[in-house]
Amino acid sequence: MYKALVNVTLRKSILDPKGKAAREALHNLGYSTIEDVRIGKFIEINIKADSEKEAEAIARDACSKLLANQVMEDFTIQITKV
Amino acid sequence: MYKALVNVTLRKSILDPKGKAAREALHNLGYSTIEDVRIGKFIEINIKADSEKEAEAIARDACSKLLANQVMEDFTIQITKV
User: B48–A33: do the CB atoms touch at under 8 Å?
Assistant: First the structure.
């Protein structure tokens, strides 16, 4: 069994209203040294596979097809054995 | 300038309807080897600080006060210099 840890982030050129709202709220709380906040998704996927390579291929495929919107988002995958 | 990379995850005992929906959708697409999906948040915070320690303290504080709901969520922070 493998666990894929996936970070999905909005592309740099895409506006991030959630992150902007969080930054404004933090400024209002007094955190003036926080310059920018961007909010993406963190996805943990448990995969039954024979090898790390196979697990990564499945995770990459699942992200491309469903979990990330590649027009607006990038993703990185890290595989660990569990 | 430092960048804090924060992973916010739902606690193990908390149901994750978004993750469950993603798992069902992946099963319907034929990914039967995917056993479990949990979806959390990935937050990037740019912080002006004099040291890594100070940046981490600010990030931890911001997460505790605003970005994570500690009743239901856990978070991990990783600091990098940018």
Answer: yes
Domains held by chain A: number: 1
- Interface list for B 38-77 with A (CB within 8 A): 38-49, 58, 61-62, 65-67
Interchain pair B22, A67: CB under 8 A:
yes
Q: CATH number for the domain including B20?
A: 3.30.1280.10
pLDDT of residue A76: 96
> What is the predicted pLDDT for the residue at A28?
96
Per the structure, the complete domain to which residue A37 belongs is given by 2-81
Nearest in space to B2 (alpha carbons), one of A20, A41, A69, A35: A35
* Identity of the residue numbered A78: Q
Residue type for position B74: D
Contacts with B16 from chain A: Cβ below 8 Å = none
> What number is the ipTM of this complex?
0.91
